[in-house]
Amino acid sequence: MKPVVIGTKGSANAVADESRLAVTVGSGSLRVYATPMMCALMEEAACAAIEHYLEDDETTVGTYLELQHTSATPEGMAVSAEAEIIGVSGREITYTITAKDTAGVIGTCTHKRVLVGSERFMQKVSNKA
Q1: Which of 26, 34, 91, 120 is the most buried (most CB within 10 A)?
Q2: Is residue 3 part of a domain?
Q3: Is residue 102 part of a domain?
Q4: Is residue 72 part of a domain?
Q5: At 118, is the secondary structure helix, strand, or coil?
């Protein structure tokens, strides 16, 4: 991994369409943007923040999320997430992430990802089978 600059940001965008609703993904019975989908969007933003620093076979895997989903988003509304790298300790990268819809903040999170070699990681996973 190349040296990481604290404060680097990444973003991701989505729409609260049918495929991302709580009722569709099984995280509730309402037609609102699902918490698991917000979580995935936040991780996507974190990946975007670190991608410039990764070498050939490197990637990151999520290891920790402390998330608050504070406001519901109606079906059809745009959603975005912005991740900021706030710390690096060895192979561990720490982020703070904010998710918003067009009306304002809908969630916040502290997230950690660990740098891994893709091939080695997948070999360990396949050994479990």
Answers
A1: 34
A2: no
A3: yes
A4: yes
A5: helix
